[in-house]
Amino acid sequence: MSENALPADRSARSERIAARTRNSDWRKPPRRIETAECITCDSCLRGCPAEFGAIVDRGLDVVIIPELCSGCPACVLECPVDCIYVDEDWSPSDDSLWNLVEFPAETR
To answer: Exposed, middle or buried by CB within 10 Å (0-12, 13-18, 19+), for 81?
Structure first.
């Protein structure tokens, strides 16, 4: 990724956060973490690309904000217990999750 592309990617993430919407161009559904299977190692959080920053720490567990998740497999590849699944039936995130999102993305 070029240095010139990074600010645009961060800006796009910031726009998705402000609008609380998912990019309509993303073809893959977002991912979800099955909390009953998760060991909260945070490997997925560290593995999620900064331009998405879709995974947040919610205290005792980590969750994926579907509006920020492109559906890429980066977190799945990092998970040692295979607890991340495709979420075909995702629903919009509530305020309690959005309050955990770092804004702007430059702080990630």
So the answer is: exposed
H or E element: which one contains 45?
helix 43-47
Q: Rounded to an integer, what distance in angstroms lies between the CA atom of residue 65 and that of residue 73? A: 15
22: CATH: 3.30.70.20
Q: What is the span of the domain harbouring residue 91?
A: 5-107
At 26-76, the pLDDT tens digits run 999 999 999 999 999 999 999 999 999 999 999 899 999 999 999 999 999
End-to-end Cα separation, the chain, in angstroms: 17
| Tokens at 83, concatenated | 């607890």
Could you read off the pLDDT of 3-24 as tens digits, one per residue?
444 456 768 999 999 999 999 9
| Size (the chain), residues | 108
pLDDT at site 81: 97
Q: What domain count does the chain have?
A: 1
The pTM of this model reads: 0.85
